[in-house]
């Protein structure tokens, strides 16, 4: 596929509130690196790398640097003719998965648009046009979290992720309050973001065994797979691995060790849609379910994850790709999200359009540069 130019734009998107976890307690603006790929026949593809502080492998400065000095010169020097060629090109950049994800997203968007097909068509198709989404409740006192959970229930959400602080006694109170508030009609996921010691994690997991908790997410330090396996073996509460999975090889290692009951993956971390699909396939063969979704992704990345989720049976729902709900606005056409369900876009590729005109992009852009062959 001929590539005429690639534009890289740094975005700063204000969010609708402050979102906290063990990684970041004051998080009110989503930074992103937007990749806009223009082909020689007038087709445009877009992709974003929406890294979150303290969590993502690369910072946004790292992402821009790897795009400028390595990935884009390689891509433009010998443009791949098809997605398999793109995979071979990006395989050289294992240490820059976030940047590779944005490039792959933009390439696949343009590739599918030139063929007049959706991304789901490239991924072998889907019979689903709507997908349920997962709501979220931030860290607070138990009463406030219970009120927030009721609000999500009233809006039609049937699943919630609640953030925990790493304080075992207080976190148990939080989980109990939320479960009591929503009853059996809303599935509750609890995310610790690696906040406990192994003994603390076992204590909390056992304390909530009598509650309808879907899983306890990454309760221990990401480097401690042995500790994670100990927690998983010690409780009937399902344990999900997240932060410890930085590469596809990490996902396979967690599965091989039986360190968790379920794994969390996202295209930003795996290096793109195609490699994430490979992990979904491998996990399916091993009988391990996968949760998919970046909770802070902008609309292009969200569409990519939703389309992947719609095209694969080994995605444990609802999907956690809920970033657009947290933004006050974006320079893209928005997805349709109503009553806890997202509708896949109808257009080709990602089905997401970059709003035309400099004013639309300038509202969010903080810097920009372009590279040509």
Structural class by sheet pairing and helices:
alpha/beta
Segments where pLDDT lies below 50 for 5+ residues?
A: none
CATH third-level topology of the largest domain: TIM Barrel
The share of residues in helices is 25-40%
Categorize the overall geometry.
globular
The arrangement of helices and strands along the chain is: EEEHHHHEEHEHEHEHEHEHHEHEEHE
CATH architecture of the largest domain: Alpha-Beta Barrel
Characterize the largest beta sheet: strand count, sense, and whether it forms a barrel. 7 strands, parallel
Question: Number of folding domains?
Answer: 2
- Count of discrete alpha- or pi-helical segments spanning 4 or more residues: 13
CATH superfamily of the largest domain: Enolase-like C-terminal domain
| Total number of beta strands | 14
Tell me the radius of gyration: 20 Å
What value does the average pLDDT take?
95
End-to-end separation in angstroms reads 13 Å
Describe this structure in words.
The chain has helices at residues 60-77, 83-90, 97-115, 119-122, 142-154, 168-182, 198-207, 225-234, 248-257, 267-270, 273-286, 299-310, 358-362, and strands spanning 3-14, 29-39, 44-49, 130-132, 135-137, 159-163, 187-191, 213-217, 239-241, 262-265, 289-292, 336-338, 341-343, 365-371. Helix 1 crosses helix 3 (97-115). The longest helix has 19 residues, at 97-115. The protein folds into two domains: 3-116 and 355-371, 2-Layer Sandwich (Enolase-like, domain 1); 122-343, TIM Barrel (Alpha-Beta Barrel). The strands form three sheets. Strands 5-6-7-8-9-10-11 form a seven-stranded parallel beta sheet. The chain has a four-stranded antiparallel beta sheet with strand order 3-2-1-14. A three-stranded antiparallel beta sheet has the order 4-13-12, with helices on one face. Strand 7, helix 7 and strand 8 (213-217) form a beta-alpha-beta unit. The chain contains 13 helices and 14 strands. 38% of the residues lie in helices and 20% in strands. With 373 residues, it is α/β, with parallel strands linked by helices. 50% of the residues are buried.
């Amino acid at each position: 596929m001929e590539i005429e130019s690639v534009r890289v734009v740094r975005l700063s998107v204000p969010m609708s509130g402050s979102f906290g976890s063990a990684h970041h307690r004051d998080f009110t603006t989503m930074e992103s690196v937007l990749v806009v790929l223009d082909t020689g026949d007038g087709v445009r593809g877009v992709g974003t790398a929406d890294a979150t502080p303290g969590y993502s492998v690369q910072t946004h400065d790292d992402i821009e640097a790897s795009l400028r000095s390595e990935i884009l010169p390689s891509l433009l020097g010998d443009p791949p003719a098809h997605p398999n060629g793109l995979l071979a090109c990006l395989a050289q950049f294992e240490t820059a998965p976030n940047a590779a994800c944005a490039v792959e997203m933009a390439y696949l968007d343009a590739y599918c648009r030139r063929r007049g097909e959706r991304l789901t068509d490239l991924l072998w198709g889907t019979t689903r046009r709507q997908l349920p989404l997962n709501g979220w409740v931030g860290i607070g006192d138990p009463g406030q979290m219970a009120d927030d959970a009721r609000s999500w229930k009233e809006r039609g959400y049937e699943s919630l992720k609640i953030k925990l602080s790493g304080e075992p006694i207080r976190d148990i109170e939080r989980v109990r309050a939320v479960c009591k508030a929503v009853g059996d009609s809303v599935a509750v996921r609890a995310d610790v973001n690696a906040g406990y010691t192994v003994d603390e994690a076992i204590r909390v997991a056992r304390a909530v065994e009598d509650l309808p908790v879907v899983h306890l997410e990454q309760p221990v330090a990401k480097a401690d797979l042995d500790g994670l396996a100990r927690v998983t073996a010690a409780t009937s509460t399902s344990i999900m691995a997240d932060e410890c999975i930085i590469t596809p090889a990490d996902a396979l290692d967690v599965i091989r060790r039986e360190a968790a009951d379920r794994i969390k993956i996202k295209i930003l971390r795996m290096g793109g849609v195609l490699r994430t699909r490979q992990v979904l396939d491998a996990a399916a063969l091993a009988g391990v379910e996968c949760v998919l979704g970046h909770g802070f992704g902008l609309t292009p990345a969200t569409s990519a994850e939703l389309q992947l989720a719609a095209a694969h049976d080994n995605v444990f729902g609802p999907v956690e790709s809920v970033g657009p709900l947290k933004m006050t606005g974006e320079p893209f056409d928005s997805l349709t999200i109503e009553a806890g369900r997202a509708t896949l876009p109808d257009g080709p590729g990602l089905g997401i359009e970059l709003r035309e005109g400099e004013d639309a992009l300038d509202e969010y852009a903080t810097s920009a540069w372009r590279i040509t062959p």
